[in-house]
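User: I'm putting together a teaching handout on how sequence relates to shape, and I'd like one worked example. Could you take 3-phenylpropionate/trans-cinnamate dioxygenase ferredoxin subunit from Methanolobus vulcani, show the sequence you're using, and then write out its predicted structure as tokens right after it?

Assistant: Happy to. First the sequence, then the structure tokens directly below it.
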Amino acid sequence: MKQEDNWIFALKADELDNGEKKPLLIEGNKVLVLKVGDDFFAMSNKCPHMECPLSKGTLEQYVIKCPCHDWRFDVREGKFLDAEEIRVPIYETKVMEEGVFVNLSMEGAGK
């Protein structure tokens, strides 16, 4: 994977359509990359409840629902919608040269 400073190449921008998600292993971290509209988001692929893979859940607009116990998270901020003090780690993303890059050192930074 190509790296520019702290930015790590995740996937080509045209690999995901609106409403799609893709689980990846980036430098040993289980990361879920999602596309909503024209924006890309990246978050941990583990629900904080029982570490169920969020990639197997459903995505509706900016909300992903965990497949195990229906916990719902906002992909923009990582907030659990029923108790905002619980969060999924999120990572900053950017598109460069038709690729989507993730900054794992920017946990919680959002977009």
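A couple of points you could highlight for students: Strands lie at 3-4, 7-12, 21-26, 29-36, 39-44, 58-60, 63-65, 72-74, 90-96, 99-103. DSSP finds no helices and ten strands in the chain.
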